[in-house]
Write a structure and sequence with these properties.
Elements: H1 3-30, H2 32-49, H3 66-95, H4 101-143, H5 152-169, H6 172-181, H7 187-192, H8 194-208, H9 213-247
Length: 248
C-alpha cells in the first residue's frame, strides 16, 4: 500500500471507531439508570447486613446536578468500554496489514485473554468483594465514632476505581506467562522467589486497597492465586515446548 492508501485506510478506521463510540455511549445512556443501581447495590447490601435502614443510609447528593452528572459519567464509561471492542477491532484491521502471520496469531490469541481477565476481575469485585469491603469500612467508621455520610458521586468513584484495580491485577497470569515465554524469567526463578512475590503483593495491596485488613486480603488472595495459576500455565507451556523440541 502507498502512503496515500495508508492514510485513506486510517481515516476510514477512525471514522468507524468514532461511530462505534457514539453508538456505545448511546446504549450506555439507555441503560444508565440500571448501571447506577447495580453500582449502588453493594452499598445497600452492606447497610442491610449491618441492620441499617435503607432510608437512613440512603446515598446523598450534595448538589442539584450531582446525581445527573454521575449518571452521565457512568453511562459514558460503560459506553466507552462497550465500544472499546469495536475500536480495538478497527485498530487491529489497520495495524495487522504490517504484521507477520505469526504475530497476528499471537495478538488474536492474547487479546481475548486480556479482556476476559479484566472483566473477571471487575465482576469479582462487584459481585463478591464490594459488599464485605463496604461493610468493613462502615464498621471501622463506627469503631472510630464517626458519623459516615456517603455521597453518590464518592461511592460510584470508589466502585469504578476498585473495579479498574481488580481488572488490572487479574492480568497477573498473563504477565507471568509472557515473562516465561519470552525467556526473561525461568520457572525455577518464579518458584524460588515466591516469598518475595507474596511480600510484593501484600505491599502493593496495602498501598492501593482501602485501609483495612479485609480489603487488602480480598485483593491480595486472588492476586497470589492468579500468580500460582500463571506459573502453572507457564510450566505447562515450557514443558510442551521442550517435548516438541525433543521429538524434532
Amino acid at each position: 500500500m502507498s502512503l496515500g492508501d495508508h492514510l485513506d485506510e486510517l481515516r476510514k478506521r477512525l471514522i468507524y471507531a468514532v461511530l462505534g463510540i457514539v453508538a456505545g455511549m448511546g446504549i450506555g445512556m439507555g441503560i444508565g439508570r440500571w448501571l447506577l443501581l447495580l453500582l449502588e447495590k453493594p452499598y445497600y447490601d452492606a447497610m442491610r447486613h449491618l441492620g441499617r435502614s435503607e432510608a437512613g443510609a440512603k446515598l446523598k447528593a450534595l448538589t442539584a446536578t450531582e446525581a445527573f452528572n454521575t449518571y452521565l459519567r457512568v453511562s459514558a464509561i460503560f459506553g466507552l468500554i462497550l465500544a472499546s471492542w469495536w475500536v480495538f477491532y478497527q485498530l487491529w484491521k489497520f495495524v495487522s496489514v504490517g504484521l507477520y502471520s505469526k504475530e497476528r496469531r499471537y495478538v488474536r490469541n492474547t487479546l481475548p485473554f486480556i479482556a476476559g481477565l479484566f472483566v473477571a476481575g471487575a465482576m469479582f469485585f462487584l459481585f463478591v468483594v464490594a459488599t464485605p469491603i463496604l461493610q468493613a469500612l462502615v464498621e471501622m467508621s463506627d469503631w472510630l465514632d464517626v458519623d459516615m455520610s456517603v455521597t453518590l458521586e464518592n461511592h460510584v468513584a470508589f466502585m469504578t476505581n476498585m473495579m479498574l484495580v481488580f481488572g488490572i491485577t487479574f492480568q497477573t497470569p498473563l504477565i507471568v506467562i509472557v515473562l516465561a515465554k519470552a525467556g526473561l524469567v525461568s520457572i525455577r526463578s518464579f518458584n524460588r522467589f515466591r516469598r518475595h512475590v507474596v511480600i510484593a503483593i501484600l505491599i502493593f495491596t496495602a498501598i492501593i486497597a482501602p485501609p483495612d485488613a479485609f480489603s487488602m486480603l480480598a485483593l491480595a488472595t486472588p492476586m497470589w492465586l492468579l500468580y500460582e495459576i500463571g506459573v502453572l500455565l507457564a510450566w505447562l507451556m515450557v514443558r510442551k515446548r521442550e517435548g516438541t523440541a525433543g521429538k524434532d
